[in-house]
Amino acid sequence: MDDALKAPSRRAFLKGSAAAVAGSVAAGAAVAAEPDPLITELQDWASSLGEGVDETPYGLPIKYEDDVVRRNVPWLTADPISSINFTPIHALDGTITPQGCAFERHHSGAIELSKPDYRLMINGLVDQELVFTYADLERFPRENHVYFCECAANTGMEWAGAQLNGVQFTHGMIHNMEYTGVSLRTLLNEAGLGAAGDLKDKWVYVEGADASSNGRSIPMEKALDDVLVAFKANGEALRKEHGYPVRLVVPGWEGNMWVKWLRRIEVTDMAVESREETSKYTDVLADGIARKWTWVMDAKSVITSPSPQSPITHGPGPMVISGLAWSGHGQITRVDVSKDGGMTWETARLGRQGDTKALTRFYLDTEWDGEEMLLQARAMDETGYVQPTKAQLREVRGENSIYHNNCIQTWHVKTNGEAENVEVS
Amino acid sequence: MSKFLKVTAAALVLGSPALAEEKFGLGRPALPEEVAAWNKDVLPDGRGIPEGRGDVFTGEEVFAEQCAVCHGDFAEGVDNWPVLAGGFDTLGDKDPVKTVGSYWPHLSTVWDYVNRSMPFGAAQTLSPDDVYAITAYILYSNDLVDDDFELSHENFADFEMYNKDGFIIDDRAETEYTIWSGEPCMENCKDEVKITMRASVVDVTPEEADEGADGAMQGHSEGTVEVAATEQAAEPEAEVVETAAVAVDPELAAAGEKVFRKCKSCHQIGEGAKNRSGPQLNGVMGRTFGAVEDFKYSLVFNAAAEEGRVWDDESMSAFLAKPKGYLKGTKMGFGGLKKEDDIAAVIAYLRSASE
């Protein structure tokens, strides 16, 4: 780890953090040298008046939080219209992602489709092909569930090595919201599946209303299990970038299947094998053969703080290591944390027992001795699956699959509190 | 899908808050015309494809007109836009080149995707014959057919793609889940740990992120560059009107309209023109650079706007000849017009169409 210490710190914010560490070491001393003017002097806000109600009819985060925003990696795609950005997970806590900073992925841009203009068609092998309006959907029994939505390409840039220096970029193609909607099963039942005959080999093809006409084939078993036709997220209408007014929620399965601006549901007797399930979202193995229909997002976790964008800004002593864990197979049952690159592990505390197929927050309340750390987290889910290392993943899949990289991530925390994305032996 | 039947039965009986058999009588029957309008997907066995035909030669023309700006004349891909041809036998290499030819397992996917999703910015505007022709041309540019090939609904289902056997169904349950499970190691899991790679060496993290993190460390940073630039850009609207006065040669403008097909996938012009991936171009001649208020320009365009640079014949000719040479850093993903005549014509068209 010696060479690590000499690595120059290129980034301005890292200098900032080093200074902050020095400052707070002093401030951390048990005795204050001088009285704190923030306490002893009358502050403006304690004397004059603040803003009245209605100043911002729809409230936004206070200006001090204006760096907690989605960010894009421009070199990834040719054009921002068909592109992706990343959730600032380094700056969030708990599990719910506010809609305004939840990552976006569009194939032909985010469209504006109003509720009055919205139509949903069910066609194909059903007893009665139907058209619903938005108002119709609101008259079916509704359900509420919290689910994570992860793009299959999350962490995809890291297959060949440590690339992007920030958890927002390595793991930010994910969000977690509470959805309100109608079960897809209810809508399929409304159209009637008698015409489909034996349901075992049937599929549901779902398609969006935007110009990309993004469509995916979902096996009937999943369609009748927990798929939701959702119109609210975190209590309010979906944002346009997430498919207003109606999107599909496919719990535990890759984000591309969560079709936005959902306009059509077709019952078929085979997979359509659309572009998004052949050219994309298939995983090339080392021998050039590709896996298809790899829908489930396997268990994964990552430490969000400390991390490159969220360095340690205090001196040695009590600290909280925090992160997120999730599994497309069900609940997270345990998360272990290592400070030495995987030689020894401690079991972290779950903030709250997570919901199935939803983000779970974990904390390791610990002491920092001021020394370097190689931080890792390792998730386990209810099936007994243990999140693999990068080496384990590469052994089975090679380095070319782009998608479904759920490897253990390592952050190298230096003595000044800075953290860097690294790979370890 | 072995546990399928059990799950379904349980789901239908117990899962829903409503009884499964119960229907609500909501919605209305879909009319045949409505289903026909939306039900466009084509299945791997060819079901769903409309009748029609198109040959390689026609396809080459349509492709040059509608697709080549992004995908290249030979489907080789311009800049960062997708490559559609070549890459054969690279799938097992370090950086596989996955194209329609080297990777796609079904011809139906090509026809279906081009028909429903391309050209980017003008989806669903191609006729079935054009889609047949383009598909034939993409096969030709991949050396999969000869130049006299014609594709039609009749021979469509018989065509076998190069990589049709290149896929297996998700086998993680056998190859991974069984291995990566059980009680994991907690102590002495390895003898030593070495850093083998670090992100700062590759250094591809967007600078923006630094600024953000910087802000986080030093507290709130006042109004961003972007906001300032947009305000600047908002002003020059008034100048736009004057330019219409320049006399335009109608013949030249008509020729320019043809050239403008190369621009259409990204730009609109004329009444009701909206921003697409490029800004709307109404009154662009005589307009300040980067002046469309609600369009997000690149930094060079914002800088040019700030300097108050105005589009005239000279600047427009230079820009259209070599966009990236003239304004380094522009995000206009277009290689440039090679012929001076085309440039003069399209400028005349830009003037006339804005009138």
TrEMBL record, chain A:
Major enzyme class: oxidoreductase
PROSITE patterns for this protein: TAT
Domain of life: Bacteria
Cofactor dependence: Mo-molybdopterin
Enzyme Commission number, as recorded: 1.8.2.1
Location of the Oxidoreductase molybdopterin-binding domain: 114-271
Xref: Gene3D superfamilies: 2.60.40.650, Oxidoreductase, molybdopterin-binding domain
GO BP term (any one): sulfur compound metabolic process
Signal peptide: 1-32
PANTHER family: SULFITE OXIDASE, MITOCHONDRIAL, SULFITE REDUCTASE
Name assigned to this protein: Sulfite dehydrogenase
Gene: soxC
Automatic annotation (TrEMBL), chain B:
Positions in coiled-coil regions: none
Domain spans labelled Cytochrome c: 54-142, 251-354
Transmembrane segments: none
Pfam families: Cytochrom_C
Signal peptide residues on this chain, from the entry's feature table: 1-20
Alphabetized Gene3D superfamilies for the sequence: Cytochrome c-like domain (1.10.760.10)
Protein name, as recorded: C-type cytochrome
Taxonomic source organism: Sulfitobacter sediminilitoris
Upper taxonomic lineage: Bacteria, Pseudomonadati, Pseudomonadota, Alphaproteobacteria, Rhodobacterales
